[in-house]
Design goal:
Number of helices: 17
Oligomer: single chain
Number of strands: 3
Largest sheet: 3 strands, antiparallel
Strand order of the largest sheet: 2-1-3
Structural class: mainly alpha
Low-confidence stretches: 1-6, 55-59
Helix content: over 70%
Length: 405
């Protein structure tokens, strides 16, 4: 018995026949193939084929935030439809294309079947279910309104993921275009410019200063290119390494990002939107304000707003009004502070916070579209200067030779 309890479970796929002779298939976690067949026999299924798929699980894509949002939405919908929880996990797990998600869901199902509460089963996977998710599920279980809370969680996850996508879109487009421009420039310097250089050697005349500068740059990149690549790679690795481990560095970068032109206002609005959305979701779930603010701090996505939210929590815990505490930080627009004040006075803080979140999410969406429109001509100009400048530098001697002739 002790051996069975301590044994590790593995994912299996199976095919078989049910009591009506209908061919069915599915997946489950078990310690061995024999355990799968025994479990299926208890369910009235005659197993024809059972296969361990641990290698498939390892090769599957990782579980991402969108998968968790979809999981919350599917579970909420099925529970509201009256489907038993364990059956919900079977449907979600077996119906998902990602093996990694299947393994996660079936693992949660196994814990729930063993008598563990849902929030405790989710807490065993902190990489995918954060404290906010677990706390809200626990509040739903205690209040007997798990379906309603899961629906709120699903809405919250969907909106926050949509907001993250908008921010990534704002950052990715110019970064990708400029990266392509740099790569094209390096290719021209290494492979194209040397061809022109060998051609110019037969001219027997001095090259224009601009052309000579580009040729010297090409020689430098060819001679020192490997060192430059190693230096750039090392700098990039060091940046990401220390960014993950140094809170001070992240704090400095987050402050710079908030003050950056064009992108700064978008990041500020996104942080306020996440703050308001999380506060609305937590307060609507009946979580006490001071406790809710601790989760809100981690959800803002920016250390500056995270630390400000923790200061707000400390002030609120001493009896200060939320509106006054937010005003003291100097990070929230007057409109946000006033709407929170109205929510406090009217007892509808969750509704007013939701309206603030809706407003700023729409504002971020509009700002990202506007930024893309403004950046397109600027990026084209940069590409023109980089690539066009190299082309002009190579044709200047030809034009000079034509003028002499």
């Amino acid at each position: 018995m002790a051996e069975v309890i301590s044994s590790k479970q593995f994912p299996f796929t199976w095919e078989g026949m049910d009591k009506r002779g209908k061919r069915i298939k599915g997946r489950m976690l078990a310690v061995s193939e024999a355990a799968v067949r025994t479990d299926l026999r208890k369910q009235g299924v005659v197993a024809k084929k059972v296969r361990k798929e641990s290698q498939l699980m390892k090769s599957g894509k990782k579980v991402n935030a969108e998968d968790i949002a979809l999981f919350a939405r599917q579970l909420a919908t099925m529970l509201q439809a009256g489907i038993p929880m364990v059956q919900c996990f079977d449907i979600i797990g077996n119906g998902h294309d990602k093996p990694s998600v299947q393994k996660l869901v079936l693992s949660i199902k196994s814990d729930v079947e063993a008598g563990t509460t849902l929030h405790e089963a989710l807490a065993k996977h902190p990489l995918y279910f954060d404290d906010l998710f677990v706390n809200l599920v626990e509040a739903g279980e205690q209040a007997g309104a798990l379906e309603t809370l899961l629906d709120k969680i699903a809405t919250y996850k969907e909106k926050t993921e949509a907001l993250k996508k908008k921010i990534k879109k704002a950052l990715f487009y110019p970064t990708a275009v400029l990266a392509v421009a740099v790569i094209v420039t390096i290719i021209l310097l290494i492979f194209v410019i040397p061809q022109f250089e060998s051609l110019f050697k037969g001219f027997g005349a001095d090259l224009p200063a601009f052309t000579q500068m580009v040729i010297n740059m090409s020689r430098f990149v060819q001679d020192q290119g490997w060192w430059l690549a190693i230096l750039a790679g090392g700098a990039g690795y060091a940046f990401f390494y220390f960014h993950k481990r140094s809170r001070k560095m992240r704090q400095t970068i987050d402050k710079m990002m908030l003050k950056a032109p064009i992108i700064g206002p978008i990041i500020t609005k996104a942080a306020i939107a996440r703050y308001a959305r999380t506060l609305s979701t937590m307060f609507a779930a009946g979580v006490p304000l001071v406790e809710a603010l601790a989760s809100v701090a981690g959800a803002t996505g920016n250390i500056v707003y995270e630390e400000a939210t923790l200061r707000i929590r400390d002030e609120v815990s001493t009896g200060q009004r939320l509106q006054r505490s937010m005003e003291n930080t100097g990070l929230f627009p007057n409109m946000v502070v006033q709407m929170i004040a109205v929510g406090e006075e009217s007892g509808s803080l969750d509704a007013m916070s939701s309206k603030v979140a809706d407003f700023f999410e729409a504002d971020v969406d509009a700002a990202v579209d506007s930024m893309s429109s403004l950046l397109e001509p600027l990026i084209m100009a940069i590409l023109g200067v980089l690539v066009g400048g190299l082309v002009i530098a190579m044709y200047l001697p030809i034009f000079k030779l034509g003028a002499v002739v």
